């Protein structure tokens, strides 16, 4: 397929300047022929030929202006088509990522439930250890101060919160950061919004509406 030809502004300027120069020369020739006819130095046929040449050049000049207007229209239409194609591509990618985001939210929700169950089991193991240690304490005899200190240290080691802080550190190390501090009403809020996936689905709808609003002509032209 032959490469599409373009008519640039520089093409227009160079052709316009050349034609304007030719028209000036043709006008001089026409005026000179008319003057020479009056003097009897040339014929009406010579005058008519000069006029035909002048008219032909002026017609070419008018055609050049039409060509320029058409080139501007075509360029604007091409730019609009490129813009609309770009908008459609961006919206398609946003739609793909919104679906991806919702699917990942479902996985996060499942993983969070599993993590919560494991943390509960972890805490229960700690309390079971303490309960058994308390029974050992009740069975102990002798240095009560030492035993009491041992119980206090055991509780501190089990429940000082450093392990959960390390869990948060692990999550951050893997690239996830939670920018919002959990609300004391987070549990009630979770129930209110219908869960994480329901919340993400509603946010996705808002995000897509915002994305469409970024297109100058809306989705209908994207």
Plain-language structure description:
It is a single chain. Helices cover 81% and strands 0% of the residues. It has helices at 9-38, 44-139, 144-159, 162-173, 186-193, 196-213. Helix 1 (9-38) packs antiparallel against helix 2 (44-139) and helix 2 (44-139) packs antiparallel against helix 6. The protein is rod-shaped. The model has no long low-confidence stretch (mean pLDDT 85).
The rough form would be described as rod-shaped
The succession of helices and strands, N to C, reads: HHHHHH
Low-confidence stretches: none
- Mean model confidence by pLDDT: 85
Q: What is the β-strand count?
A: 0
In percent terms, what proportion of residues is strand? under 5%
Radius of gyration, in angstroms, nearest whole number: 43 Å
Q: Which secondary-structure class do the elements indicate?
A: mainly alpha
Helix content: over 70%
What separation lies between the terminal Cα atoms?
A: 28 Å
The major beta sheet can be summarized as:
none
Number of helices: 6
Keywords:
single chain, 222 residues, mainly alpha
Gist of the model:
The protein is mostly helical. Helices cover 81% and strands 0% of the residues.
